[in-house]
Amino acid sequence: MSGYTLYWKPGSGSMVVEAALRLIGVGFDEVRVDETAAPEFLALNPAGKVPVLKLACGPVIAESAAILMTLDDMFPEARLLPPHGTPAHAKAVQWLVFMATNIYPACLRYYYPERHTTDQSPHACEAVKQQAARDMGRDFAQLTGAVQGPFLLGQTMTITDVYAAMLADWYDPAKQLPEIAILVNAVLDNPAAAEAWRHHGFGA
Ligand SMILES: N[C@@H](CCC(=O)N[C@@H](CS)C(=O)NCC(=O)O)C(=O)O
Questions:
Q1: Is 12 near ligand 1, meaning CB less than 6 Å away?
Q2: Per-residue pLDDT at 204
Q3: Which three-class secondary structure state does DSSP give residue 151?
Q4: Which CATH architecture has domain 87-190?
Q5: Residue 36 near ligand 1, beta carbon < 6 Å
Q6: 5-78 and 87-190 share one CATH topology?
Q7: CATH of region 5-78
Q8: How far is CA 112 from CA 22, 130, 135, in A?
């Protein structure tokens, strides 16, 4: 028993955390969360969202970007991110946070517009969805403009690339962008990332 426990759900953002754990090579237990509003899960993460990771040293961490940066701090030799203190590290963190705070929430607005407006009319929900699509178009364009190819920062994959592939899989127009299509294929050439992808049912 490794002491790490990943709380996960198929098709969700826990995919990138599983990929990180597999890239590190540390063992972990898995708990599939089918009911994120269950009291026992809310006791772990009051936001009622996956991913959640219980660390071997005790704490329970939520928020995908925070979990990934914590794992990078704990296992720097795994190179989830470029070496600390380098320009490449700064850029990889910038784009990771950009995606977690812009594209991920826009994707949730796109698929669950009714959760993002007090007006439950079809017209209001459609307006939320259309604005989310517009936001994702703008944000994926910014991301694409930064991709050096095949990965964001050139030849070496970081966990930021796995995050980008995950978000692109949720939104078809992003997958059509040539730079993103190349990046996703390159991510899936990595056996650890491909295993997390398959286990979470991505690429369907
Ligand atoms: N900001 C959070 C967002 C997490 C999130 O919204 N997760 C979704 C799945 S992708 C979730 O658990 N939603 C509640 C549910 O599915 O019941 C993060 O980056 O981890």
A1: yes
A2: 84
A3: strand
A4: Up-down Bundle (1.20)
A5: yes
A6: no
A7: 3.40.30.10
A8: 30, 12, 15
pLDDT in tens, 69-88: 999 999 999 999 999 999 99
CB distance 66 to ligand 1 below 6 Å: no
Cα–Cα distance between 130 and 113 in angstroms, integer? 9
Residue among 8, 12, 159 to mutate when testing ligand 1 (max atoms within 8 A of CB): 12
Q: Whole-angstrom Cα distance, residue 38 to residue 46? A: 10
CA distance 91 to 85: 11
Given a cut of 50, the residues of the chain with pLDDT beneath it are none
Residue 198 CB partners (closer than 8 Å, separation 6+)? none
Alpha helices in the chain (DSSP H): 14-24, 39-42, 64-74, 87-98, 104-111, 122-146, 159-170, 172-175, 178-188, 191-199
- Does residue 75's CB lie within 6 angstroms of at least one atom of ligand 1? no
* Ranges of each domain in the chain: 5-78, 87-190
Residue with tokens 């994702």: 136
Q: Which candidate, 87, 80, 47, 82, places its Cα nearest to that of 65?
A: 80
**Any ligand 1 atom below 6 A from CB of 13:** yes
